[in-house]
Amino acid sequence: MTGIASLSLVTGVMLAAGGPAFAGSAPASPSPAAAVKNPYSPAYQHPYRHGAVPTLQQHAKMKAWAANHPATTAATGTETLSYGGGVDGIGVQSGHSKVYLVFYGSQWGTQSTNSSGDATFSGDPDGAAPVAQEMFKDIGTGSELWSADLTQWCDGPNVSSGATSCPSNANFIPYQSGGVLSGVWYDNSTASPSAATGHQLGQEAVNAAAHFGNTTAASNRDAYYVILSPHSTNPDNYQGQYCAWHDYNGDSTLTGGPVSSSYGDIAFSNQPYNMDSGSGCGVGFVNSPGTLDGWTMTLGHEWHEMMSDQNPAGGWTNHTGSSYNGQENSDECAWIAPGSTGGAANVKMGTGTFAEQASWSNDTNSCAISHPIVGGGSQGNTVTVTNPGNQSTTTGSSVSLSIKASDSAGAALTYSASGLPTGLSINSSTGVISGTASTAGTYSTTVTAKDSTGATGSTSFSWTVSTSGGGCSSTQLLANPGFESGNTGWTASSGVITNGTGETAHGGSYYAWMDGYGTSHTDTVSQSVTIPAGCKATLSFYLHVDTAETSTTSAYDKLTVTAGSTTLGSYSNLNAGTGYVLKTFDLSSLAGQTVTLKFNGVEDSSLQTSFVLDDTSLTTS
After folding, report:
1. In angstroms, rounded to a whole number, what is the distance separating the alpha carbons of residues 573 and 558?
2. N or C terminus: fewer CB in 10 A for the chain?
């Protein structure tokens, strides 16, 4: 196809996703693909530059060299990708991707917030920062199918090393509906190095994992940290060579060595302020003037490659022995001219349009700028479960609740449920929840429906069981009141419920830590609860406030506590103290209602305030 011939000449590797090594040592690196032989490739003698996008000028030199060094004949198609067997059990991101943008270094300048809620910076002359945020917010919205190419890739124990397609029982990359941006951090604690090494970039990714509270391997399994260096810096000496790359912290070939951590493997990318390279990194490649064309193309290029090869080269890469050898899906489609088959193009998403490049597709044997959703053999089936609303009953009562669900392809569904009140169960064929509730309490119930292709949908609601006979016994209505089961029962901002370092619990190990960033930020923790009619209800919780604010009169950072539309209390940096303080409120006026108990912390643009919550209780008597 048009433009494909040029792909064999792009022998750089793509950005590799990675994670910190465990406590003092790095995880084993994957067996490397054959060393890059093209001396003009940005990955030549720099094997950690996975998915490196060569500049247009460097790409031309690579083409000229490759033309005089014909590739060997491959057993499969020259562009075909195959599975690398995984590294630390990781091949692809087979969950919903969590993208964290890390603006690395004080050279980004003064931070502000625009009308869309995006962080903006005075040291960002091209306005690149908010566009990066909007792009990752928009992925998987507006029925865009640029990212659907990823749904053909998979990992898991049922995928053999060397496979060139996925079995139906594999762990597929799901369609990333609803956006993937999970957090933004301006790390202005120090200036970004003038030419950060691979190790320094990996260390910044580990620092970001800690900042966002992702301090376990599980929390980093689907996380990806984009390290965005500021204008006029030269991370890993990219100028004149390449425009971006990705890797993971455990790569032993990183300049300066692998990055050690106890948070699991950390996927990250090196995203230079590549507008500084002009047309060499894609300025004007799709649009005119197209200042940010190359910026969004390289952000998308590296995300696609990380998704399909999270810990390089354990995911999907080229092993054919051709001049594509070692490349990832986006490498094979780099710099194909707009209007050509498989060429770069503007991709319309939910609220914006962004210049993107295509990525290689094994199942169509082409570079795809748009692709049907595969979804693990589901052909894009969508399962929708209707929320029945919060439920209440009394002990000894007979229950029959029919859960309604539908499949976009009309397929039959099976049902399962977790968190049901004691004595109740769900019929797997009909979705009817029935039985006799036997134990009083508030339950966080989730019902899941699944079709024969593996497509699923779910919904969650609370179920309050009160004592029979009209009396009000002493009952704890909150699920997981001390946070010891993590997010169970609670809806919370990312990383808020934690057992990490920096603050301490009032009791047990876990607590809810809101704010504390020293930048404009909002964190919430909430739970829906039904207060039985005729009962006295008492809310209590322990709160600790610490702050870097120095004012004794101005409340800059605030925590508001509400129950439904009722404001119970408000706290600020003026309430800072050395320990936890017990707060108590009478909620009897809300008896007979289902309300959302919510803690909402809002922090201004400077000087941190931390609101730390633990050992909540909402009891009846």
Report:
1. 7
2. C
Which band of pLDDT confidence, cut at 50, 70 and 90, is reported for residue 452? low
Contacts of 112 (CB under 8 A, 6+ apart): 119, 120, 121, 122, 605
CA atoms of 218 and 232, how far apart (whole Å): 36
Rounded CA-CA distance 120/605 in Å is 12
> How many angstroms separate the CA atoms of 480 and 492, rounded?
13
Quick: pLDDT tens for 230-275.
Answer: 999 999 999 999 999 999 999 999 999 999 999 999 999 999 999 9
- Identify the CATH assignment for 383-469 out of 3.10.180.10, 3.40.50.720, 3.30.428.10, 2.60.40.10: 2.60.40.10
Q: What is the CA radius of gyration of the chain?
A: 26
The pLDDT score that the predictor gives to residue 10 is 31
In the prediction, which pLDDT does 527 show? 96
Q: How far apart are CA 173 and CA 94, in angstroms?
A: 4
- Tell me which of 71-80, 266-275, 588-597 is least confident: 71-80
Q: What pTM was computed for the model?
A: 0.60
* Of 555, 540, 558, 539, the residue nearest 611 (C-alpha): 558
pLDDT band at 76 (very low <50, low <70, confident <90, very high): low
Give yes or no for residue 307 having a pLDDT over 80. yes
**What letter would DSSP give residue 193?**
P
The full length of the chain comes to 621
Q: Is 479's pLDDT higher than 50?
A: yes
Percent of the chain with pLDDT over 90: 66
Is pLDDT above 90 for 20? no
Which residue has tokens 């009140």? 421
Q: H/E/C letters for each residue in 414-475?
A: EEEEECCCCCEEECCCCCEEEEECCCCEEEEEEEEEEECCCCEEEEEEEEEEECCCCCCCCE
Sequence-distant (≥ 6) Cβ neighbours of residue 90 within 8 angstroms: 155, 221, 265, 310, 311, 314, 315
Q: What CATH number does domain 491-620 carry, 3.90.1170.20, 1.10.10.10, 3.40.120.10, 2.60.120.200?
A: 2.60.120.200
Q: For residues 170 and 239, is the Cβ–Cβ distance under 8 A? A: no
Model pLDDT for residues 388-424, shown as the tens digit of each residue: 888 888 777 788 899 998 876 677 889 999 889 989 9
Give the pLDDT mean for 216-227.
Answer: 95
Q: How many Cα atoms within 13 Å fall on the side-chain side of residue 7?
A: 33
Nearest-angstrom CA–CA distance, 137 and 42:
30
Q: Are 503 and 470 in contact (CB under 8 A)?
A: no
Output the six-digit token pair for 425: 């169960």
Q: Which of 305, 168, 166, 160 is nearest to 224 (CA)?
A: 305
CATH 2.60.120.200 positions along the chain are 491-620
DSSP class per residue in 479-501: SSTT-TTTTTT-EE-TT-EE--S
How are strands ordered across the β-sheet holding 391-394?
391-394, 456-466, 441-451, 413-418
